[in-house]
Structure formats: C-alpha cells, structure tokens
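Budget justification note: compute hours in this period were largely spent on complex prediction jobs such as the one shown. Inputs:
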Amino acid sequence: MYKRVICLVVFVIGLAIFIGDFTASAGKDKAKTTDKSKDEKFKPKYDDTTYVPTSDEVIEKMFEMAKVNQKDVIFDLGCGDNRILYMAAKKFGCRGVGVEINPDRIREGMDQYEKYNGGKDFGKLLSLVELRHGDAFKVKDIGDATVVVMYMFPRFMNLWFPIAKEKLKPGTRIVSHDYSWEKDVVPDAWEPVAEATVKSSMRENHKVIMWVVPEKKAKKN
Ligand SMILES: C[S@@+](CC[C@H](N)C(=O)[O-])C[C@H]1O[C@@H](n2cnc3c(N)ncnc32)[C@H](O)[C@@H]1O
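Corresponding output:
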C-alpha cells in the first residue's frame, strides 16, 4: 500500500512537470510567432535596392519641368547618394529631403555631403539638404513636399500612389525618371501633365514624366 502511494505521488509530480514544460514551450512558440509577425510589420512593402543613378542631363530636365525654385522643398524617395538634392540646393538654394533604405547608399550620400560642403559653400548646403536612412513609405512629413522626385520601378509607384493621394498637397509636382504607375493596377492614378525624352552620355531615351497633384474632390454626402 505504502509503495502504491509513493508510485502515485511520483506519477502525479511527473505529469505536472510534463504539463508545465509543454505549456512553457507552447508559450515560447507563441512568443516566436509574435516576434515574426512583428518583423513582417516592419518589413518594407518594397525594398528593391537596385541602384542606377540618374544622370545629370536627366536631373536638369526634371528641375526644368518642375520649375524648381528657391521656395521648393524637394523629397527624393529612394535617393541613392542624394546627389539630386545637393544639385538642387546648389542651383536654386532650396531645401531637400532624401530617403534611402540601403545603408551603403547612405555612406555614399555622406561622401556627396563632403563633396558639396567642402568648398567655398561650406555650411550653406549643410542646412538645406537632409539625408534619412529609412523607408520611403513611412515619411511622416511627405506632406511638406512641393516637389517629389523619384527613379523607382512601377511596382513602387503603384504601392505609393495611395500615399501620394492622401498626403500630398494639391499643386505638388511629382517628377519621375523613366517609370510611371500602371493604370491596370492603379486605375485612379493621375494622368501626366508633361513628358520628355532626354539624351545622356549613357543612353538616348530617358523618359521624364511629371504629374501635378489635383485638388481634392469634395466628399459626397
Ligand atoms: C534607381 S535608384 C535611384 C537613386 C536616385 N534617386 C537617382 O535617381 O539617382 C533607387 C533607390 O531606391 C532605394 N530604395 C528602394 N526601396 C526603397 C524604400 N522602400 N525606401 C527608401 N529607398 C528605397 C534603392 O536602395 C535605390 O538606391
């Protein structure tokens, strides 16, 4: 009888340990799942880091079409080495914010900073051009832009259109090198107001496309 009681107690303790362990590991799995979903949440919608810098001839055309001037605030979404904004600051004295996801490009952006701020203009461009390491879909102050420039594949542009529609002020100019949104994916996308073809030392047929954000439609009751 005494032996049986001991066996029963050992069995109950063993069972308790097993159940406890199982619950704990299930908890761990749950924690892992939560972490994974957190990662998904912070993963950019688009992070194709293909880098092809826009050539100077095309940049000049983009400035000309958008009639960039000193009052402008230019955002370059996927800015690479941020050269476009240094060129704009130097030429027009306007502010610029470049957003780039790839840290290698950010390092190159800092080299551009040295290049443009090291000469007689030292300190002048410093306050005008900002380089941010981050996701172009999460630019809280994009509504401050008067001009947005980009050289991004259509998939980026399709995904970004709802942000442009919601956040950009009417009258903001969007100027894109080569690519456009795809009408079959984004049927309500705006029509371009101007298009040009530019020749550079690299190739003959760069496209520059510009849209102007229209007035917001009044909501129907
Ligand atoms: C074709 S390059 C254009 C660089 C520059 N705007 C120019 O025209 O010279 C596109 C850049 O977008 C960056 N990029 C891609 N996805 C991004 C995202 N979600 N947020 C910020 N930058 C991104 C890439 O790393 C790459 O440097």
